[in-house]
TrEMBL record:
PANTHER family: ABC TRANSPORTER, ATP-BINDING PROTEIN. Keywords: ATP-binding, Nucleotide-binding, Transport. InterPro entries: AAA+_ATPase, ABC_transporter-like_ATP-bd, ABC_transporter-like_CS, DrrA1/2-like_C, P-loop_NTPase. It comes from Haloglomus irregulare. Belongs to the ABC transporter superfamily. SMART domains: AAA. The keyword Nucleotide-binding applies. GO terms for molecular function: ATP binding; ATP hydrolysis activity. This is ABC transporter ATP-binding protein. Residues 4-229 form the ABC transporter domain. PROSITE patterns: ABC_TRANSPORTER_1 (PS00211), ABC_TRANSPORTER_2 (PS50893).
Length: 306
């Protein structure tokens, strides 16, 4: 079942076109990473999904409902962490949670939620004095209230230190494991790569790619790079680039690097090296999502799926 369906979504603010026809589907139980550079339209999309903004054109369904005509069931079943979450300075972390739990008519234990975001030491402190990262942790705890079916997290790693980033990944996985769907936006590629099942890349108001991390790598032919320490000079080698699925072969400092489309291509290279008596230690370097992302979002090389 689809939890989020966007169909030709368009949004203009006066002369500025933020979304130019976004089509997107997120299935139940999926962790969807919504990637894009600053100003791509990520927050605009999220605001429309939660009915904090209305589309200029196009359709949107969240959890089977149209949030524009009836946002109540959508918001009741969705936990959200949005940009610029404002805390009540006079309330403690625990009081924030109590308030959110009461508003939702839920029965969560506030201290348990506080522990999940590693804020135990600050449970009784007023949030007005919290650091940016602490506020972000509190906002995340609030989003988790009442075991939402859908978690929408807009740039959730903002302000988090490395421990916080790990905590966030742990929570995203745990939420997925209990059956929730997680939709999170980010321009921090490592975050997305670590936990997302599916990735959508938004660029200048359009989805330019939507696939699994693996699929995106394959689609771009980014494949992976085989790195081999050679046991001798490569003079006796030739024609490696003629092997099927092998590209960009380079030799430097006694080391060979070759882009390989798949495991068979790697084996072909290794066999050749072995036959030539040059095979030393080898390693495989996967293309990072960062490389994929920059290929899709560099101005002079934008790939569209239109
Ligand atoms: N309320 C608004 N009024 C006018 N323009 C807006 C408004 N909200 C967004 N925009 C414009 O729409 C475009 C998309 O903005 P949006 O905030 O959705 O991008 P984003 O991908 O979330 O960016 P970031 O990563 O910087 O948060 C930008 O050009 C932005 O200036």
């Amino acid at each position: 079942m689809s939890v989020i369906e966007l169909d030709g979504l368009r949004k203009s603010y006066g002369d500025v076109t933020a979304l130019r026809g976004v089509d997107l589907t997120v299935e139940r139980g999926e962790v969807f990473g919504f990637l894009g550079p600053n100003g791509a339209g990520k927050s605009t999309t999220i605001n429309i999904m939660l009915d904090f903004a209305s589309p200029t054109a196009g359709g949107v369904r969240v959890l089977g409902e149209d949030p524009q005509s009836d946002s109540v069931p959508v918001r009741r079943r969705t936990g959200s962490l949005l940009e610029g979450y404002g805390v009540y300075g006079g309330l403690t972390a625990r009081e924030h949670l109590r308030h959110a739990i009461e508003t939702r008519g839920a029965d969560d234990d506030p201290d348990e939620l506080i522990a999940r975001v590693d804020l135990e030491g600050a449970a009784g402190r007023r949030a007005g004095g919290f650091s940016k990262g602490m506020k972000q942790r509190l906002a995340l705890a609030v989003a988790l209230v009442d075991e939402p079916d859908l978690l929408v997290l807009d740039e959730p790693s903002t302000g988090l230190d490395p421990n916080g980033a790990r905590m966030l990944r742990r929570i995203v996985r745990a939420e997925r494991d209990r059956g929730a769907t997680v939709f999170f936006s980010s321009h921090i590629l490592e975050q997305v790569e670590a936990v997302a099942d599916e990735v959508g890349i938004l660029y200048d108001g359009e989805i330019v790619a939507e696939d699994s991390v693996e699929g995106l790598r394959r689609e771009l032919g980014a494949g992976s790079t085989l790195v081999v320490e050679l046991t001798g000079p490569p003079d006796r080698l030739s024609g490696l680039e003629d092997l099927a699925g092998v590209r960009d072969v380079t030799f430097r400092d006694g080391r060979l690097e070759a882009s390989c489309d798949d495991a068979d291509a790697k084996l072909r290279v290794l066999n050749e090296l072995s036959a030539a008596g040059l095979l030393g230690e080898f390693d495989v370097r996967e293309a990072s999502l960062g490389e994929v992302f920059s290929k899709y979002t560099t101005d002079d090389d934008v790939v569209t799926d239109a």
